Amino acid sequence: MKMMEISIDKTYCKGCGICIKACPKCVFAMSEERQSFGSLIPYPAQKEKCIGCKLCEMLCPDGCITVE
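Now predict its structure.
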């Protein structure tokens, strides 16, 4: 199985955490990195677990996540 590439646009991500809650494989975690306005930004902590369902991509309210 091919490892999925997951990218998050840190410019527009507001750190809502929907991707963390939506992922059935618990791929995402909140990082210590902050957005320019202070919110923590999620990151794919365990991208090897990604099954490519793209729930994170579909549910991100700001369209910040891309799964390829």
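The chain is about 15% helix and 25% strand.
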